[in-house]
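To close the chapter, one final illustration. This time we ask the reader to focus less on the individual chains and more on the assembly as a whole: which components sit near each other, and how the overall shape emerges from the parts.
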Amino acid sequence: MTGAIATRAAEVPDIVIDVQGLTKSFGGRPVVKNLSMQVHRGLIYGFLGPNGSGKTTTLRMLCGLLTPGSGHGTCLGYDILTQSAEIKRHVGYMTQRFSLYADLSVRENLEFVARVYNLDDPHAAADSAIRRLGLENRASQLAGELSGGWKQRLALGACILPGPELLLLDEPTAGVDPKARRDFWDEIHTLAHQGMTVLVSTHYMDEAERCHEIAYIAYGELLAQGTVDEVIAHAHLATYIVTGPDLAELAERLKAMDGVDMVAPFGTALHVSGRDRARLDAATKDLREQGPQVWSPGEATLEDVFIDLMSRTKDNFA
Ligand SMILES: Nc1ncnc2c1ncn2[C@@H]1O[C@H](COP(=O)(O)OP(=O)(O)OP(=O)(O)O)[C@@H](O)[C@H]1O
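The assembled structure is written out below.
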């Protein structure tokens, strides 16, 4: 199967997704607005944003599973408006809900998927997936009895069984423990290394940081995209890390100040950011000089940037 993925990938265009001006409304309410993006082959591309911001809708439009209201583009070289059947043949889609048969074993599920896709040797295909995902000890266990992490691994195994060229993973690790999440992401990286392109939505910052590129979507708008470093640099957030006593009270005071755009607790510290360094410095001058807290210049994190982006869109909505 590994060979199959590598061979197919060689035929895939270098730009796997190339879309312009996609929009989608439900019941007259715009859910995705004028979205344009390109994704290169072999990249892990992460979609982040608040709940209900349009990530799933975007993922589904990008690969022809949902027709946009307007806009156009290609996925795997096929037209998303007219060739969705061809696209679907080459896309593996893992939804938020576990969609395999709970009362079939791991092996039976995989063989079933192999038969649905008319693979030559369903038994061998299931074997290969079981080995690849380290499911040997669980092959005869009922899928419904697996832990959350192993269920996700099985779902991934079923997704890649037919040798897709593009994987869509919609919050694949929600509710999965950190070790299982890490293993899952190691596997995604191995697949990408072999030429598979992966679009993945997530709410986890550590997962965002494991993506080659990310897109941040809020209220239907694509607010930032690029590598993690590019997204952070582009936000131009000046940041202080504040430690010491009474941080909760300090946070409330800071939130009300002009020039302070983002205040968020991180463990035992407070991150305080502003889009304009001079205004942030002026606003916080007295507090920084008087204490009792200690203020140190810091680097904005991806999470700081996302919190700031989210609050900006909320401001615009108000
Ligand atoms: N088929 C549909 N019919 C009507 N409304 C829909 C439909 N699909 C999605 N929506 C609405 O569109 C908005 C965006 O939903 P979407 O699932 O794309 O967001 P999301 O960013 O993936 O959210 P989450 O992080 O919660 O999964 C939501 O308000 C949702 O209720």
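Residues 1-10 have pLDDT under 50 and may be disordered. The first strand starts at residue 15 and ends at 26. With these observations in hand, you are ready for the problems at the end of the chapter.
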